Structures are given as C-alpha cells and as structure tokens.
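seq:
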Amino acid sequence: MAEKKGFFAEFKAFITRGNVLDMAVGVIIGGAFSAIVTALTNQILMPVINWILFAITGGQGMENIYTYLHKAYLLDEAGKVTTQIDLANSIYIDWGAFITAIINFLLIALVLFLIIKVINMIHEKAQEQKAKYDPLTKEEVKALRREGKTPAEILTAAAEKKAQLDREAAEAAANAPAPAPTTEELLTQIRDLLQTQSEKSAAKKE
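struct:
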C-alpha cells in the first residue's frame, strides 16, 4: 500500500510540474491553431487559388492536378469500361495535395512569425518602459498615473528615487565596518611584522 502511495505521489508531482503544464497548454493551443490555419487554407485560400487555376487552365482546379502513373477506368452497369478514371484503383501523383501542404506550411510559418514579432515588440516596449522609469516599480508607476502624473513628472519621481537610493548606498558604504582581513592578508601582515622585528634586532646588534 505504501508503494502505491509513493507512486501516486510521484505521478502527482510529475503532472503538476510547470514545464509539463506549459507543454500541455502548448499542445492544446497548437491543435486549435492548426485547425484555424487548415480552415483558412481549405475554405478561403484554396477556393481562390482553384478559381484562378480554373480561369488559367480552362476548367481544371488544383484538386484535379494529377500525374497518372497507371490509370484505371470505371465500369458501367453492363461491365464495360468507361472513360471515367477510377481514382481508387489508379496510381497517380497528387500535386494538389502537395501544393496544399506547402501552402499550409507557409501560412503556419508566416502566422507564427507575426505572432513572435508582436510578442517581441511588446516585450521590448515593456523593457524600454521599465528602463525609462527605473528604479520605480511597475506598481509605483501605475499609482503615479492614477494620481494624474504626466510622463515628465514620473521621470522626475524616478530621478528623485534614484538619487535617494544612491545617497542611501553611499551612507551605508561609509558606515559599514571594515571588512575582515582574509587569511592571505593576515599571513602577509605577520610576515611583514616578523621581518621588521628581525631588521630591528640586527640593527641593535650592530
């Protein structure tokens, strides 16, 4: 019974780890995102591309772009071979599916690039804002804005706080006790002291 409790405790610790939860969220969002991109491709872009190909080729859309390696024909009710191709039994290269996969890939790459670009821009803006009002915290900046302070007044408050912190740091450094000497410094002092005493003794003998 104790082994079961240990196993379930380890399992609970495993599934509640931050990286596992992040991965699960990423998989769910990725699946939903893939569905959106697939719908965008199949329901919006592909009809437009097929319409363009229909106008160019005179009636052959992307879904019918095949290169046949072996053709099989359908049979009519009497068992005679017709001119209609039996795709289920034919061997062919489906260029339409291949082009659709390429379009899907390009769309996903483009959308991901745009999302990452927007996130990076937001992050850079936040970092610039943070550096601009340093050393004020985010909460302090929000409080000043709620008070109706202008950006210039917030910058003045940031400069005043920075000056105050610098003064406090200087005072703390001035009042701080001298650091204890290290072992190497103590050995050096002892060596110098012994050397001085030895020189004094030699001088007295002379």
